[in-house]
UniProtKB/TrEMBL annotation:
It is found in: Membrane. This is Amino acid permease. The keyword tRNA-binding does not apply. InterPro entries: AA/rel_permease1. Pfam families: AA_permease_2. It comes from Fictibacillus aquaticus. Keywords: Membrane, Transmembrane, Transmembrane helix, Transport. GO terms for molecular function: amino acid transmembrane transporter activity. The chain crosses the membrane at residues 21-46, 58-78, 90-108, 154-172, 184-203, 215-234, 255-279, 299-322, 351-368, 374-394, 406-426, 432-451. It is a multi-pass membrane protein. It comes from the Bacteria. The keyword rRNA-binding does not apply.
Length: 461
């Protein structure tokens, strides 16, 4: 009953050749999948709050710090996903290098991360959607427009539930169809962001950038730990590896290209936003639209709201997709019940898993106020990034002759920097985040010893 037993690379590659899932995605699809996951709540919601409460105009440095941590991790993801192109992302890579219990716990961690991210993003989508409806004179009754405990007198956040169920229905029918819808929506939101930059740059007042660091360097770091949420998503590209054509080439391109495009856009939008509006006034739920209203561009602000809804929809789609692929891989290895890895005969998707996940996510979004849980999502992601970095070092030592289509540069220096950056951001998160994370991982440990260890395919073997 060895809890550190490892799944061999040979086993994994043989598993990927069975092709239970359709390989239909190309490099452009993956890049747009990554952009679809990354650009959403971060750029349309978090920018204003972090500027007003933590970083001021130095928000740009917060984004650069978070982007560096992600960039280092991205190279590690690219090496693994091109070498072992199967579903599961960091869970799968940890299984091959560090052992079963670590793999299960990081999979358990990622399941919570993606599920909470899906539900939290759906709540943001609901807020923007209701704002758009108000522009047309339609106001939803408070009782069906917000979750209990949000202070708005609601019993259920119905719009948040309905958008998750809509994305669930789309994903259950097939990844090719989902990717087409995602690609269209990504082009729309990129056009809207470029429109904001083009329109807003003429209203930038350099005096709004002073003082540049009103909260000091500590505020910048806290801001970096918070806006890290804005980068969550590029790792979801790795979860799609088993559904990619020529994964050895296309997965690294998708990961690195999507992260690069989004980092550049975040930096430019941050500069324009804090240049248009004094940072003290940006503590609003829709800072990008607010900035245009502030300078009198009300029509453009309406377009931005449409773009925000579109952008947040793609985040929902990719987060839900990633969650399903993680639990699919864990189930296939026997660590979760078999229903999660059952593939639909016609659609070639984990159909039941998709609907189970979607219904749970919709329930959380509809009835739980998630504002206090956003940091927990960041904690889970930072832990995953740290493990993927460690796994790359271990893989280089244990499988030095393994054919690698892409090799992360400067190993072990770059992976060590990844762990240090992520650790630095983790200790900047509130104490309640650490307590919540410890509780969730304790539950996961119990599930592993009571169920997963006994039912593991390696144990049966």
């Amino acid at each position: 009953m060895n809890i550190l037993r490892k799944k061999s690379i040979t086993q994994m590659l043989e598993q990927s050749q069975k092709r239970a899932l359709n390989r239909t995605l190309g490099a452009l699809d993956l890049t747009l999948l990554g952009i679809g996951a990354i650009i959403g709540t971060g750029i349309f919601v978090l920018t204003g709050v972090v500027a007003a409460e933590h970083a001021g105009p130095a928000l740009i440095i917060s984004f650069i710090l978070s982007g560096l941590a992600c960039a280092f991790a991205a190279f590690c993801y690219a090496e693994f996903s091109s070498t072992v192109p199967i579903a599961g992302s960091v869970y799968t890579y940890t299984y091959a290098t560090l052992g079963e219990i670590f793999a299960f716990l990081i999979g358990w961690d990622l399941m919570l991360e993606y599920l909470l991210a899906t539900s939290a993003v759906a709540t943001g989508w609901s807020a923007y959607f209701q704002s758009l409806l108000k522009g047309f004179g339609v106001e939803l009754p408070a009782v069906i427009a917000s979750a209990p405990g949000s202070g708005q007198g609601g019993l259920v956040n119905l719009p948040a539930m309905l958008i998750i169920l809509t994305m669930t229905a789309l994903l259950s029918k097939g990844i090719r169809e989902s990717a087409k819808v995602n690609n269209i929506m990504v082009f729309i939101k990129l056009a809207v962001i470029l429109l904001f930059i083009a329109a807003g740059v003429g209203y930038v007042k350099p005096e709004n950038w002073h003082p540049f660091m009103p909260f000091g360097f500590e505020g910048i770091v806290t801001g970096a730990a918070t806006v890290f949420f804005a980068y969550i998503g590029f790792d979801a590209v790795a979860t799609a590896a088993e559904e990619v054509k020529e994964p050895q080439r296309n997965v690294p391109i998708g990961i690195i290209a999507s992260l690069s495009v989004c980092t550049i856009l975040y930096i430019v939008v941050s500069l324009v936003l804090t240049g248009m509006v004094p940072y003290t006034k940006l503590n609003v739920a829709d800072p990008v639209s607010f900035a245009l209203h502030f300078v009198g561009q009300n029509t453009l602000a309406g377009f931005i709201s449409v773009g925000a809804i579109t952008g947040i929809t793609t985040v929902l789609l990719v987060m839900l997709f990633a969650q399903v692929r993680i639990s699919y891989a864990m189930s296939r290895d026997g660590l979760l019940p078999g229903v999660f890895s059952k593939v639909h005969e016609n659609f070639k998707t984990p159909f039941a898993n998709t609907w189970i996940t979607g219904l749970i996510g919709a329930g959380i979004a509809g009835f739980v106020d998630l504002t206090t849980l956003a940091h927990l999502v960041n904690m889970g992601t930072l832990a995953a990034f740290s493990l993927i970095a460690i796994a790359v070092i271990v893989m280089r030592k244990t499988h030095p002759k393994l054919e690698r289509a892409f090799k992360a540069p400067f190993v072990p220096v770059l992976p060590i920097l990844t762990v240090l950056f992520c650790g630095y951001l983790m200790i900047s998160l509130p104490a309640i985040t650490w307590i919540s994370f410890a509780i969730w991982m304790s539950i996961g440990t119990a599930v592993y010893f009571l169920y997963a260890r006994r039912n593991s395919e390696l144990n049966k073997g």
